[in-house]
Amino acid sequence: MSPKVAVVIPVFNRPDAVCRAISSVLAQTCRDYEVVVVDDGSTDHTAEAVVAIRDDRIRLIRHGRNRGGGAARNTGIQSTMAPLVAFLDSDDEWMPAKLERQLEAFERSSEDVALVYAGVERIDADGHAAIDIPRPHPDLASRLLVQNVVGETSVPMVRRSALEQVGGFDEELPASQDMDLWLRICEPFRAIVVPEVLVRVRKGNDSSRISINIKAGLAGRELFRRKHREKLVAHGVLHQHLRETGWLCLRGGRDVRQARRYFLSSLKANPTAPLSYLLVVVAYLPMSCLDFFARCKQSFTSSRRVRQRAWAS
Question: Which domains does the chain have, with CATH numbers?
């Protein structure tokens, strides 16, 4: 019989990290799964490290060249048969009950539920941990046009039939691939939340990780906006997407001039949004003032996460 869950792990030149990720899968309380590790053209001993893990449920597939995370995940999807698919980035880890909790949520739900996501513990480069337990959104697809409220690729479990219907990951996007896929799934299908922390995501200083590669992140957001522009306009959130991109330019890339252009474009898209005016002003302030505002925003976000955690409990 086919296992219930296919676990897809893409990896590129991370032998130690991928072994930790695999260990977190092998420690799952749910045992009904298969694991496919897709080595995306590694040039070190990553493949050998995976092969050294002796477990019949683990298979290794190798790309002859580096094709990107989206292509590696699509290869993993195509090489498995389980009706549910869970992705795990090579430098992330799952809590032991991750698969069990999400599988239970699927089994309690109707067929129109195609995605189950959960809470995340995010650890930054300094080792500081922040808990994020998402709340259900009445219009999740609309929210996903602006912000990845579902979470990183390691977070959801997805129904295979839905993946096949929407065509899997868009390999042309250098970033925002996860947000793009969750959006395309949540437009025709429903998603539900397991309100507990089931994933540990590490936000280190490794510039090869797409979420902290600012240049690739901005390019991905630009392509995402072009791809979904009609939807952004129809939902009245184009200005919010431009605003978020400008903030990434300002805080991540510290590119003041480009950030101003995004904020002004946001104003043009919606001249009645007060926050856009404020951000235009902020973009003309000294960087030290911006650092102060960023700390205030981080403090507010942390406080909100504490409230969300209390709500979930």
Answer: 5-203 (3.90.550.10), 236-312 (no CATH)
Distances (CA, A) of 287 to 99, 250, 257, 275, 300: 44, 9, 12, 19, 20
Q: How far, in Å, CA of 107 to CA of 94, rounded? A: 20
Beta bridge partners, 194, equal 118
Tokens 């947000």 correspond to 179
pLDDT in tens, the chain (313 residues): 789 999 999 999 999 999 999 999 999 999 999 999 999 999 999 999 999 998 999 999 999 999 999 999 999 999 999 999 999 999 999 999 999 999 999 999 999 999 999 999 999 877 888 899 998 888 999 999 999 999 999 999 999 999 999 999 999 998 899 999 999 999 999 999 999 999 999 876 554 444 457 888 899 999 999 999 999 999 999 999 999 999 989 878 888 899 999 999 999 999 999 999 999 998 888 888 777 776 776 666 556 555 555 554 5
Question: Which candidate, 170, 143, 173, 155, places its Cα nearest to that of 244?
Answer: 143
